[in-house]
Request: fold
Amino acid sequence: MGTVIYGNELAQELKDGMKARVDELRRQGRRIPSLSVILAGENPASLSYVRGKQKACASVGIESSVIRLPADVSQEALEAEIIRLNEDPAVDGILVQLPLPAGLEESRAIGRIDPRKDVDGLHPLNVGRLYLGEEGFVPCTPRGCMELLKRMEAPLDGCRAVVVGRSHLVGSPVARLLQNANATVTICHSHTRNLREICRQADVLIVAIGQPHFIDHTYVKEGAYVIDVGISKAADGSLKGDVDFDDVLPVAKAITPVPKGVGPMTICMLLDNTLKAYEEREKHGL
Ligand code: GUN
Reply:
């Protein structure tokens, strides 16, 4: 029977450490780290994610603001808002909540963010740094996955890792992080043949496809470390991961649940990236 690794518990431990750092800044009368989120439109899931981010900032003492824009905002007005935040010395981190409403170009918007404030790690400069193994901002969910693997004490050096999903937000960057940690990495996606056989070879299996309970025990090698990034709302309102947790738990060495798995770690890594942006900006005199 596998060990269940709870992301909410790990996130709380890390947030306790961050709160102590921010409390100390406040005690010293220093400037307080600050995150700005741009939310265009009314996507209910995005509204809920953004509320979660605001709540998490407040819980560690980081200041946050949300800039609400109408769904029919022009590309130019959206980019003007990003440029305004780039130039605001009180803002350390900028996050453009995705997906953007139809008609807006995500890559053009992300490309406008000052890479030093890109706490989502999605600007092409930070993407390039990750691929070169250089220091930069790393996307939050992939970072959260790596922290969970660390907590599982998964031996990554020389292991066989399989990532199911190749998105820019999760699959591709987490594969790169695993490779940077000396894993041998296979990325699978909707066109992959023999997916089950490939997954069954994985010592570390990361699943990020958004298909509820797609992965059952027949995809999992005995003793594998399993990270479930997926989160889908079922008809009855319950949240389901990409992994059939109850079916896979007996064969896994360790596994993350949904909810209380990767989700809380994503937000925690956003806070950590915001503190990193703050510290870098303070060090270089803003
Ligand atoms: N929407 C869903 N996940 C994310 C994320 O990590 N960053 C942004 N900006 N939008 C998202």
